[in-house]
């Protein structure tokens, strides 16, 4: 069905509408063979609080952005190649229900659908697109992914030293390797994580010691899935998490 839609006028028109909704600031989305599979609003767990984001699933990429005017205008376009994506279901907890993790080497985060049916449809379609892409390319699924950040609200004290309390002066930071919320003194070091940034990024002392000695696996296993200890998150590859959330999402 995807192959049949690839060069159809209806598909071309739908993709063009998406492009226009992002305006001049968005990247062109129309390329030969690309098909728009579906779209919808999902709640993305950002650093400070959950936020509604518009998502578009294509047969080769996942696109999302901030909602300015529903169905008419979006900004801050993000494009994620699907062949690098793995997804994992999240157990329901409190008001956060029908969620799953979207994990890639550069960025990982949680999203939530309005209903269990919608969640199932999204996950099934994403998995099918990823499977088809890998089958065609002969590549293997990605086994590396960026840490899912623990939200600010989940940590009142540093998750490493367990002593420093966060205040307007003593600000929260995130380790780019494990995703923990840490204080400044526990995250003064930088380390090059090529999949996330071309420049050294902030990491906690614990991860720095492991990475410096080559114990990368041990560092990863301290929190291979941030939801094993704290069920929420967000983030990207900016070099400093002091940046305004809306600009770094």
Describe the 3D structure:
This protein is an alpha+beta fold and 249 residues long. The chain has two domains: 1-137, Roll (PH-domain like), CATH 2.30.29; 152-213, Zinc/RING finger domain, C3HC4 (zinc finger) (Herpes Virus-1, 2-Layer Sandwich), CATH 3.30.40. It contains six helices and eleven strands. It has helices spanning 2-5, 9-22, 116-137, 205-212, 216-221, 245-248; strands at 36-45, 50-58, 61-69, 73-81, 86-90, 99-103, 108-112, 173-174, 181-182, 190-191, 201-202. The strands form three sheets. A seven-stranded antiparallel beta sheet has the order 4-3-2-1-7-6-5. A two-stranded antiparallel sheet has the order 8-9. Strands 10-11 form a two-stranded antiparallel sheet. A hairpin with a 6-residue loop joins strand 8 (173-174) and strand 9. The chain is globular. The model is unreliable at 220-249 (pLDDT under 50).
Q: What are the defining features of this structure?
A:
globular, protein transport, two-stranded antiparallel ribbon, phosphatidylinositol binding, membrane, Herpes Virus-1, 6 helices, 249 residues, PH_domain, 2 domains
């Amino acid at each position: 069905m995807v192959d049949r839609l690839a060069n159809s006028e209806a598909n071309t028109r739908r993709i063009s509408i998406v492009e226009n909704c992002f305006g001049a600031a968005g990247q062109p989305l129309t390329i030969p063979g690309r098909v728009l599979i579906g779209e919808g609003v999902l709640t993305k767990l950002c650093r400070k609080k959950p936020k509604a984001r518009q998502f578009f699933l294509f047969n080769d990429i996942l696109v999302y952005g901030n909602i300015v005017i529903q169905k008419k205008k979006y900004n801050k376009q993000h494009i994620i190649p699907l062949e690098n994506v793995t997804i994992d279901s999240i157990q329901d907890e409190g008001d956060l229900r029908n969620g799953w993790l979207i994990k890639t080497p550069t960025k990982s985060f949680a999203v939530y659908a309005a209903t269990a049916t919608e969640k199932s449809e999204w996950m099934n379609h994403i998995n099918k697109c990823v499977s088809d892409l890998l089958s065609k390319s002969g590549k293997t699924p990605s086994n590396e992914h960026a840490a899912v950040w623990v939200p600010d609200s989940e940590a009142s004290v540093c998750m490493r030293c367990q002593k420093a309390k966060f205040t307007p002066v003593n600000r929260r930071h995130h380790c780019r390797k494990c995703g923990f919320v840490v204080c400044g003194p526990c995250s003064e070091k930088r380390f090059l994580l090529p999949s996330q940034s071309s420049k050294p990024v902030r990491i906690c002392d614990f991860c720095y010691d492991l990475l410096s000695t080559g114990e990368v696996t041990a560092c990863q296993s301290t929190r291979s899935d941030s939801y094993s200890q704290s069920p929420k998150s967000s983030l990207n590859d900016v070099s400093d998490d002091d940046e305004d959330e809306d600009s770094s999402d």
